[in-house]
Amino acid sequence: MESELNKTIKKFLEYVEKERGFSKHTIEAYNRDLLQFIQFLKEKNVALTIEGAMRKQSFRAFMFQLSNMGQRPRSIARKIAALKSFSRFCVRKGLLQTNPSKVVSTPKLDKPLPVFLTQKQTEEIKTPSENKFETLRNFTVMEFFYGSGIRLSELHGLNFDSVDMRGETVRVLGKGKKERIVPLTSSAVEALRKYSRFYPAEVTSSSPIFINKEGKRLSRRQIERIVEKGLLGVSTQKKRSPHVLRHSFATHLMDSGADIRAVKELLGHSSLNTTQIYTHVSREHLLRVYRQAHPRAEKGQESRT
């Protein structure tokens, strides 16, 4: 029989999907982390009930085991986030009187700098010379990511009525099902206009923008492959994902003097703290330019930072 804890976890995952709008990737990660916690409790002969399992001692013992297993701090932090979120859900539903996860501290993490293209590299993403459906579609995908900074999930869900060609904007549904209007570059709009002329089906307002040869909406994995292939010719970086273009969009705006609050809104971040990473990236860029250009700058300093 399914335990009380398993049943509650299922309800929790449904809640974060339908009411909180968490991504499929996050939900799958939370599911794995919580199932790992259940397995740990089984090994310790802990009753798989809410009151029996959701205790400070269990959380601390679980974290101790993860640390002894050599799990990376980032992985442990994600598992803690899953437990904390699940604990809050249990309190909200009246299954727990207090939140036992408050005693668990998240390991301090160094935020990795985002991978992005230089402006010169983005200029190397050339307009296709041949007028073929797939070629034009793939170029339009690249232009939309770099020209608007939208996420993979947001581009995946675009229909033709999402785009205002005259106003050069795109309406997207972001995290937490929050809708926002994002400006598009003229080149992205022109790419869409040209691609739509070779669209292999009748274009209606509800038609998905990016489709395959069979007329079905591209999967997220297919979009990722398009970007990987598109970046292969312009970047030597190991990471070649849609997020690289999103990071490039934000970094180039900051380098050009854009206000950080405006960048936050364009990216759809809920907190300014998330956008702060681009301030650091922009500062690093300025320091590099200074050390390369100023006649009295110490050239060796760059290697020490």
Could you give a short description of this structure?
The protein is mainly α and 305 residues long.
What does it look like?
The chain is mainly α. It has 2 domains: 4-103, DNA polymerase, domain 1 (Orthogonal Bundle); 119-292, hpI Integrase, Chain A (Orthogonal Bundle). Helix content is 55%, strand content 4%. It has a 3-stranded antiparallel sheet, with helices on one face. Strand 1 (163-164) and strand 2 form a beta hairpin. The termini are far apart. The model is unreliable at 301-305 (pLDDT under 50).
Strand-residue proportion:
under 5%
* N- and C-termini, Cα separation: 57 Å
Main sheet: which strands, in order across?
A: 1-2-3
Quick check: average pLDDT? 87
Per CATH, the architecture of the largest domain is Orthogonal Bundle
CATH class division of the largest domain: Mainly Alpha
What is the tally of helical segments?
15
Helix content: 55-70%
Broad structural category: mainly alpha
| Main sheet overview | 3 strands, antiparallel
At the fourth level of CATH, the homologous superfamily of the largest domain is Intergrase catalytic core
